[in-house]
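WARN no homologs supplied; continuing
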Amino acid sequence: MSSTNYQTHGFVDPAQAEDHFSQQFDMSNPEHARTSYQRLMHQHTKMQFETATASSRRRSPNPSSGSNDMASLSTESSRGSVGSMG
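OK structure emitted
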């Protein structure tokens, strides 16, 4: 599937996207078109998660050090909210 830009002046043109979809998928068999599109979107999402995971690993400290650099929540009790009613 080619990467085509469906934007016109910064806005997505749904008619162009719809035309492209019908060119890529067999609309005479809607069930097959749906499952093909679903499979394609699943693969796309999987790639996005893998990319995000790899990026996250590059940013995080060395996991073998055993330290947890995440911020801890404060144990202070709440002092209530200050607001005005009027």
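Strands lie at 7-8, 11-12.
OK
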